[in-house]
Amino acid sequence: MSKKLATRKSTKKAAPSPVAAVAIITATAEPELSYDEMLNELEAIVIEADVRLTEMAEEEA
Predict the structure, then answer these.
(1) How far is residue 45 from each of residues 14, 21, 34, 59, measured CA to CA in Å?
(2) Taking the complete model, does pTM exceed 0.85, yes or no?
(3) What is the pLDDT of residues 9-61, one digit of tens each?
């Protein structure tokens, strides 16, 4: 392998992934949820799951 190819390969490996940078920025840009907000989100998830289960039971009947 030539010296030029070796330099190119090592440069490519050293370049950071733009997707990883976006994920880091997105994760740190969002404010943390308070306890009440988390509870509300969980309640909404449970209600949505209950609706889906009810719909599935009606389809099977």
Answers:
(1) 41, 30, 17, 21
(2) no
(3) 555 555 555 555 555 555 555 568 899 999 999 999 999 999 999 999 999 98
